[in-house]
């Protein structure tokens, strides 16, 4: 049982139900791993030892006597430290919020608890979720498990590192412009940004209310589907929540090879393969060729008004961030780090008409992009333009190039997943992004799983 921490959620669930291991023992193994390894990785801000063991004891008793709450019952997971947890500090990785103790759990936390998941702790991130490497955290930046001299990516860098280092079986992240997918790619795991409105954001601290998404970060696509199943669904507490049916995300995975063989894939080479790390382009092209060899039809696509979409999305992000932090920033500006302060000040420089016009133009571009994407099952491209850099070489101006391939799909609200697609010459992971039609996460997951199977020769 020494390698239990390396197994998938489904595999661990089978072990728990057979009685090969108890939830309390499993949780202790994970807490011991955090204690032994996270001093080097700095992936957690807060470890909730007592809560985790109490939840584990309850989950273990329920698995013995009922009820069985489903695939996440007894599974130790982690949460990005901008997702509010009752009576547990939620810091936003900022001195300005370091003493914030919420009085209620976020909706996603409630749903995970109802599913029987065990909370190991709160993971590190960029301060205010506002940079692309997570190095701006007031608690020190997390480090990439593949090479601790390198960045994890951001802003869900702690979540990515914890999952990649087998300190948690899954973690939740948030994604405003790249923040689930880019760190997932740089740390060699799976990161899913669902359709805007698919997962409730009620109780999550905000970078940009109209672009923020919450989603799972896991070691494989099957686990992402299991976690999304718990998170998805309408929530009246979130005004952006979509009242749409929730499919069985795992069911589609069973026919993934068939789906790949019949898929029509859009490739935005002229728009989103340019000015990209050559190794990442090569990896993406190999993945496309592999999908094509398994029957997928591949066609070039031209994205209308891409530069405008990226420009207005950046304006919206900083303006909404400035609005969220306004009162606290005016009262205690010295508690904000330099990068988050820069974002807030840029946001304050935009007027109300600028913001309104940006949102109006965004609406027009969403319609144009949806028209161009009509008839395709998915879009395939490198997750990010820039490979992981050494921490010593990280710089704030890298935010925009790093987000070039991901931010458009936040502005559009479409679902997108990053899956591992090999390693660069320096031994660090690379990621492939698969983007789908709105509320077609089942197809995105199926295509991603089909790629996993083809990649691994299954």
Helix-strand blueprint:
Layout: H1 9-18, H2 23-41, E1 44-47, H3 49-65, E2 76-80, H4 107-114, E3 118-123, H5 157-164, E4 170-175, H6 181-187, E5 190-193, E6 213-218, H7 221-231, H8 249-253, H9 256-261, E7 264-267, H10 269-272, H11 278-293, E8 297-300, H12 306-331, H13 338-348, H14 352-372, E9 378-382, H15 399-403, H16 407-412, E10 416-423, E11 429-436, H17 441-455
Parallel strand pairs: 2-3, 2-4, 7-8, 7-9
Antiparallel strand pairs: 1-3, 4-6, 5-6, 5-10, 9-11, 10-11
Helix pairs in contact: 2-3, 5-6, 7-17, 12-13, 12-14
What is the CATH C-level name of the largest domain?
Alpha Beta
**Any idea what the CATH superfamily of the largest domain is called?**
Amidase signature (AS) domain
End-to-end C-alpha gap: 25 Å
Total domains: 2
CATH topology of the largest domain: Amidase signature (AS) enzymes
Strand content bin: 5-15%
């Amino acid at each position: 049982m020494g390698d239990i921490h390396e197994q998938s959620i489904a595999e661990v669930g089978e072990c728990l139900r057979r009685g090969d291991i108890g939830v309390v023992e499993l949780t202790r193994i994970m807490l011991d791993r955090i204690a032994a390894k996270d001093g080097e990785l700095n992936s957690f801000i807060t470890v909730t030892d007592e809560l985790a063991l109490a939840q584990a004891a309850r989950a273990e008793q329920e698995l013995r006597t009922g009820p069985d709450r489903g695939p996440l019952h007894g599974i130790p997971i982690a949460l990005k430290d901008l997702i509010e947890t009752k009576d547990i500090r939620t810091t936003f990785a900022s001195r300005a919020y370091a003493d914030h103790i919420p009085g209620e759990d976020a909706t996603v936390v409630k749903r995970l608890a109802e599913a029987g998941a065990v909370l190991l702790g709160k993971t590190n991130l960029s301060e205010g979720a506002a940079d692309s490497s997570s190095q701006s955290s007031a608690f020190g930046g997390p480090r990439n498990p593949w090479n601790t001299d390198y960045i994890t990516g951001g802003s869900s860098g702690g979540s990515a590192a914890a999952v990649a280092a087998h300190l948690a079986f899954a973690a939740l992240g948030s994604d405003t412009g790249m923040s689930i997918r880019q760190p997932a790619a740089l740390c060699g795991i799976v990161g899913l940004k669902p359709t805007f409105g698919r997962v409730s954001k009620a109780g999550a601290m905000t970078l940009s209310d109209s672009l923020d998404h919450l989603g799972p970060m896991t070691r494989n696509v099957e686990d992402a589907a299991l976690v999304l199943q718990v998170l998805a669904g309408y929530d009246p507490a979130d005004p952006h929540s979509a009242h749409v049916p929730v499919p069985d995300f795992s069911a589609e995975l069973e026919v993934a090879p068939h789906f790949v063989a019949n898929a029509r894939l859009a490739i935005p080479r002229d728009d989103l393969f340019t000015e990209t790390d050559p190794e990442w382009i090569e990896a993406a092209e190999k993945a496309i060729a592999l999908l094509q060899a398994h029957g997928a039809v591949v066609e070039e696509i031209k994205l209308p008004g891409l530069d405008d979409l990226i420009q207005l999305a950046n304006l919206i992000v900083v303006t909404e961030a400035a609005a969220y932090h306004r009162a606290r920033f005016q009262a205690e500006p010295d508690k904000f780090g330099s990068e988050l302060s820069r974002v807030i000040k840029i946001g304050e420089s935009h007027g109300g008409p600028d913001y309104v016009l940006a949102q109006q133009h965004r609406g027009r571009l969403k319609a144009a992009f949806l028209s161009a994407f009509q008839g395709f099952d998915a879009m395939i491209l490198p997750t990010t333009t820039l490979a992981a850099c050494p921490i010593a070489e990280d710089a704030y101006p890298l935010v925009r190039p790093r987000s070039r391939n991901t931010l458009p799909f936040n502005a559009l609200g479409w679902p997108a997943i990053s899956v591992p697609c090999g390693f660069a010459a320096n031994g660090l992971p690379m990621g492939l992004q698969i983007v789908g039609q709105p509320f077609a996460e089942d197809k995105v997951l199926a295509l991603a799983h089909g790629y996993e199977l083809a990649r691994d020769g299954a």
